[in-house]
Amino acid sequence: MKNKYTGLVCSFLLMLCGCDEGTIYPDETIDSGRTASVTVTFKGIDAWPKENYLSLAAFGTNTQIPLLTKRISKPTIDGRERTVKLNNLSPDTKSINIAIISNGKKVIYSYCNQPVENNGENIEINFGELELASFKRIQSQVFKTNCLSCHGESSSGLAGNLDLRENIAYKSLVNVKAPVSEEGMNYVTPGDPHNSFILEILEENPIHKDMFNSTGKQEILALIKTWIQEGAPNN
Ligand code: HEC
């Protein structure tokens, strides 16, 4: 017992010596003291991500892997201004973004970004109003990664005769009658999710209903629903 105890004390003293030399911490834990203060007003908060995280993120030259992220908590009401801070920015920081980031720190979708100068000064950004349920996000997060292999970029034809490629998808969907809908629905009826066949396909069609895990599916359905509810703008 006594020996063990002595050992503990010794290693503690050794640790203290290590601290004095300033060598045991990697550089990134030293507080740079540089902070970014970001002001933003969220709209369409029903499209707040459920599987991924809405985050404030600092990027260096690599725009796919953030240097630093901070999850933003979901506001209780739409349209109230908030200020969120990102502390201890690395000197390599090149931009500050508001982005949807996965649990594994992958960028799912970046809403906006502000380039940052390398002058060490604190940063203040006002991103103004940010609409979470944008068609750009649907195109990028949903269509581009999950649908184009069959709906637009397949050599073996266009599944369901529906083209979801960028710059085409909006015209393919909004106010367009879905030929196979028994109720004669449009793919997307602005302001009316219950009359929008795309949601029915993603929830019930055998090819589509298991494309996502359950929270992933909740996230993309909430996104498309909120966008339709808000009038399905080309935003
Ligand atoms: C593996 C291939 C595949 C993928 C991936 C896929 N689909 Fe489909 N989709 C089909 C096929 C095949 C049809 C034709 C209808 C059927 O056979 O049920 C179809 C039909 C549809 C229709 C109805 C079109 C019509 O009028 O017949 C919609 C809407 C649709 N898909 C949306 C999507 C969306 C949105 C995604 C991505 C989240 C997606 N699909 C991903 C194969 C795919």
From TrEMBL:
Protein name, per record: Cytochrome c domain-containing protein
